[in-house]
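Hey,
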Amino acid sequence: MPLKRAVIPLLDEVSATARAVDAVNTVLFAEDGSRTGTNTDIPGLVNALAERGVSQAASAAVLGAGATASSALSALSGITSGEVEVYIRNRARDAEVHAIADAVGTTVRIRDWADATAAFERELVISTTPAGATDELATAVPATPGTLFDVLYHPWPTPLAAAWSARGGAVLGGLDLLVHQAVLQVELMTGRVPAPVAAMRAAGEAALGGR
């Protein structure tokens, strides 16, 4: 979401993690009114994958180049030691992606969106694109796919997620990210640790079920 970057100039302080990926998804207000921005998407991605048993991946790819893609690159720095392929629709953003990758310690290789189906050869694929962007790729899911993390949660499943699941691949969705990043937000905002993960997931499922 563009607001994850637009909010940064409005803040008094930004955490080192959020600064590195140039993306803030959480703003904390102090008693004196000062505003501190941080990023819970990065640990949220890591924790959501760990919940599904994915703590390491021999190879990985990211679809997209927005704020969530930046968070994904940071998360992958601790999950894969290999080069991460990044598939971009707007190659004018190449330098931006390289800068963020350097800041978080991830080695990337940027590739054209026209070759995006090659991403499916990787063990872990994180799709961070808007709704509809990957629909045309669904027919190219291989016979034995790895793990797909599609950060969209509505509409769900996306055509790509449905095709991936039909082929027997592991699929995580936007609700997984939404819940795990929100768990960290609740802990930061309330001081309650641990946050009620099961109750938060049930609330999220109920809210999406009503759409």
